[in-house]
Specification:
265 residues, alpha/beta, D-Maltodextrin-Binding Protein, domain 2, 2 domains, 6-stranded mixed β-sheet, 5-stranded mixed β-sheet, 14 strands
Amino acid sequence: MNKKWWDLLVTTMLAGSVLLAACGSQDSAGKTESNGSQQDFHYAMSGLYKPFNFKENGQLAGFDVEIGQALADKMGMKAAPVTNPWETIVQGLLAKKYDAILGSMTITPERLKVVNFTNPYYRSGSEIFVADSNNDIKTPSNLKGKKIGVVKASPYKDLALTFTDKANVMEYDSDLTALMDLPTGRLDAVITDQMVGLRMIKEGKAKIKDVGEPLTHDNQAIAIRKEDKQLQDKLNKALDEIIKDGTYDKISNKWFGRNILGEKK
């Protein structure tokens, strides 16, 4: 998105967060409710980002969903994953529609102006993908004037704009839909998280390939409201625990065949 629009959005959300804080903060730190039952841990995602979060037989599934379930267990809470359109997911958090965003959100300076983040729960990077038959695009410099697909309201759009003009950046609701458009010729390239594209290649769902080295190295973390310091601390503690006891490895290996937390870049 362009800087002017983003600055206006940040200003609006900052004002909204101040107003919400003045109205009182919801306790989402993992206490049991007065009737003795477990408190729900509501965490949001788009539900359109396979294999991280997606709908399967009407139920949410994926890496993000299972990490959220494991964290909820450690906090003594009941996991309650929910979906929200990605382009308004931060606004939904500030409006207290859910407790956190656990949906493969990259930590960026712009987002840190309106929300806080936990420690990273996986690390990845932005990657260029093209059709398997495409031999014209081998480096980022080959993207000039090419049609590039990106998911809406993501850092990939700004990245794409450094390589081609605005008219050639095509926005999609889902990375997978964009990747499926590569073999059809509707797109020349897609910039998305390397894990998404590599999983698609592994499953043989589209004849695509990755190009060159990752463009960026990104830390993905759980977003929480600025005032929810107690929840942030509890999530970080729970994350450390599932890493140490092997739960994280088990979930990561199930979806990717390896530990995707990796080393700090």
